[in-house]
Amino acid sequence: MFIKRAKPRPSLRARESDAPDSPATSSSLAKSSITAGDAQDPDTSADIDLEEGSGSLLGRKKAGRKDKTKDRLKKGGRLSFGGEGEDEEEAFKPKKSLLSQQIKLPPTPGGDSYAAPAPSASGSSYSQEYLSQLKAATPTRAPRSATDSAGDDEEIDASGLSRLARQKYGSSIAQDTTAGIPDAATIAAAKMKRQAGLGNGQRSSNRDGGEDYISLSEGGGGGRIAIYDGQQGPHPESRLMREEDETGDGDEDMAEFTEAKDRLYLGKDAKKAAARRLRGEIGDLIADREADIEDDEEALEWEKAQVQRSGMHEDERSEKTLRKGYTPAPIPVARPPPTILSASSRLTKAMGDIQISKTESDRNLDIVIQELAELEGQEKDLRVAVEKAEDKKEWMEEFRGWVEMLGAFLEEKFPKLESIENDAVHHIKERSDIVRKRHEEDDGDDLSLFLGVPRPAAGEEEVDELGRVKDINREAGPSSGVRRGRREERGARRLRRQRQNRGPASVDEDGFSTDSTLADADIQDYTAALNKLDHRVHALMHDVKAEDFKDPNKGLAVKFGGWRQRDEEEYSSAFGGLALVQAWEFWARAEMVGWEPLRGSTSLESFGWFGSLYRYCHPPVQHADEDDDMDDAPLSCDGDLVASMVSSAVVPLLTKTFEAGAYDPYSAPQTRRAVDLADVVAELTGKDSRKFTALLKAVLTVFHEHLISLSTSIAQATAFDAIQPPAFDPATRTEMERYVRRRIKLLKNILLWKREAPQEVRELVVRLVGEVLRPILSRHWDGGGKEMGLKVLPIAEASLPPDLVQFLQQGPNDRWQ
């Protein structure tokens, strides 16, 4: 038995390539296979399958024809509308069915009935004659079919060979002189010959005699091995080619869908390239499918056209119209002719309808005329509004430019003005330091005579004008030359004041004088400093040429007043008045440079900015009745801008002045002016405002600091290591009374602030009487202290606690000794 394979396995191909060529297998048209008995022979190294048509011209030609057919089918997937080279393309060939493709050769009689002529018993292999007969019995080509003659390039002749086969295999065809398909007698003779050579003795002698013996027996025996194909079917002896023999096991056809041919790509670039290729292939498939759909639609249309042409379809039956019999037109009913009355009534009704229509049209016309007049009025109003808007736009652009220039001007000038203000505050501080030092020296001189002198700290040395070291203890003594000189200067100043007042002063008035007049040299220096400040203020505006920047009445008042007059609502919503005050603050502060509110006679209402802002806040109003005179014009929408200026510019200036020491707590005139200023500020800004609270705090701080200084000096003078006053000095009582009178004056000035800050004033009065006056009056109660206590009692009784009132009335008891 032999196994036919369309394609040998790789192992068999390898052994076939290693087997030596034998004369029996030299022909390409026939191959023999090794029998099962010869498979045991180690010398035999190859298994050769008899493969019909695998290497023949017919097989190669058929394979090439199938490849061409596939290429034409692939290329013809899309419609072609003709073009260059259309006549040169191959003609359309219908696709063959799978059954026709499987048929390679016509069926030949096989089985045990085929008997080949048996070789002689003496021979060990097939003879050359037998092999020639076998070759002649083997069919070399299949019969011609309809598909073999399709195509212009085939040109198959009577022998069944195409022109291309004759050109390529001309020499082989010339040598092949065998006949075509054998007849039945030849096949029967061949079978008988093969059966005759199947004897045991002959097989043994042939197996032992040579290697060219080929056994074709089916049965096994004697340890012979039969070789079967792994893909054999139910009829391995059949020469019909199976579908898997021709096209494989079918996996190749489904490889495109089972991913059998897919590759694994490593790396991002390779994966991206594979993805691009896959997208391109998908796009091509979609395009092909769309083309196929179009082809199917065209084919369907063509088939419908052919069916209609053949007359096999049913014609649309037209609807049968039922014919009716003749019906004559109806004869109209006779009507009577119209009468005059009916025609008149009809005309009257028509005239009424026309009159109603005319009335309605007139009314609509009046409405249209009225609407047209309203539209004309609205148009005029819109024109006026547009003109106002354009005018306002131009004015606002001009105003914006002016404000920007004003901002640049203030940014340049404000730092210089602040420097001048700081210098003015510094001059006030220097003057107040001179007066305060004089008061401290006078108090120290008085205390040294009736209470004592604080001992100087160790290590302190003073040098006179000649460089000599002064004796501190000697200079600090009650009767030192320095103290005597200061007492003489004080007496001389008092005499000058008496001459200026043109009358002698009583003894009780001694001590009530503030004595804040500077020396002549100091007065000259202070006056020169104030003049220099005034010159600097004028120089600040010397380089300004525009009148609207020199005078705020010509610039700020005009610009902001025009804005308020044009659009008062917008002016109020934008807080134009506060913006005006903020800009006017520069000129107001420049006008108040060097102003001493507590010493000079210039009041707050005398400044130019005060009157200008007041007039701006109260614009004149045109009254219908000229006899109706009003004291003050009504307040504008801005409110009281004077209060805003006082809050933003005046109060900070007063606070800085009080903190610098411009307020002398012993001066009654300064105290009254300070109280008046505080009342004005409270009225304009309110007592609950932060500005008024800051101003009042600065005033009370002056009293607190002065009382701390007095209590400290008394405590040091009464210390155990203090220098004792002289045992007897006629001026002791006089100095004590003068010292108490100055404290009484201070007490009166403190009580003037009781209306502004009652609680704080009460604390100051208690501290002054308890810490300053009580020690002095207790020690000198019998030497004038009682009389001075009775003078203090009516002034401070309302603000003192009961124990201090009792002290001033009865004097010190044992615990106060």
From TrEMBL:
Entry's Gene Ontology molecular function annotations: DNA binding
Q: Give residue spans, biased composition: Basic residues.
A: 1-12, 59-77
List GO terms (cellular component aspect). Answer: U2-type post-mRNA release spliceosomal complex
InterPro entries noted in UniProt: GCFC2-like, Ntr2
Record flagged with keyword Coiled coil: yes
**Where is this gene product found?**
Nucleus
- Locate the region Disordered: 1-163, 193-253, 304-340, 460-514
Q: Where is the composition biased (Acidic residues)?
A: 40-52, 243-253
State the UniProt keywords alphabetically: Coiled coil, Nucleus
Tell me, in one coarse class, where this protein mainly resides: nucleus
Q: Where is the composition biased (Pro residues)?
A: 329-339
The entry's protein name is GCF C-terminal domain-containing protein
